[in-house]
Amino acid sequence: MEGTVQRIEVAAPPQQVYEVALDLESYPEWAGGVKEVTILEEDEHGRPHKAEFDVDAMIKEITYTLVYDYDHDSGFSWSAIPNEDLNALEGSYEFVELDDGNTEVVYALRVDPAFKVPGFLRRQAEKQIVGTALRGLKKRAEAAS
Q1: How far apart are CA 140 and CA 20, in angstroms?
Q2: pTM (2 decimals)?
Q3: Is 68 helix (H, G, I), strand (E, B) or coil?
Q4: How is domain 4-144 classified at the architecture level of CATH?
Q5: What is the DSSP letter of 87?
Q6: Which helix (H) or strand (E) covers residue 141, if one does?
Q7: Model confidence band, residue 125 (pLDDT cutoffs 50, 70, 90)
Q8: What does each C-alpha distance from 132 to 43, 49, 138 come to in angstroms?
Q9: Who contacts 70 (Cβ-Cβ below 8 Å, separation ≥6)?
Q10: In sequence order, what are the beta bridge partners of 16?
Q11: How confident is the model at residue 141 (pLDDT cuts 50, 70, 90)?
């Protein structure tokens, strides 16, 4: 996936980190810029399938709806329904168990805003979003263990 990919090690087991990442409604407490998350639909396992996000995107506040996919065992992915603010937003979390029982989290994100943003600023924003989210996820998951 073109975009930004970052990794971080979390001192917690993969299942615990997965559960923190899946608790979308708590994102405003730890994910920078996320103001509110509303679950619109759940899948047959009670996981979010569709969720609406209200986000302070630095340049402007935007609202978008993400659709989640749980096709792979080690994490999940999402993509936004295009709207007036976003042409595309795709991302994924992968949770890899390390030998010591900790978790390596791999976060990939690609954002294509519908408003004019120079390429270098878009890439910088992606890096900041991913870095902030990984640090917040690490802190939240480690506090829960």
Answers
A1: 7
A2: 0.91
A3: strand
A4: 2-Layer Sandwich (3.30)
A5: E
A6: helix 119-144
A7: confident
A8: 28, 24, 10
A9: 43, 45, 47, 76
A10: none
A11: very high
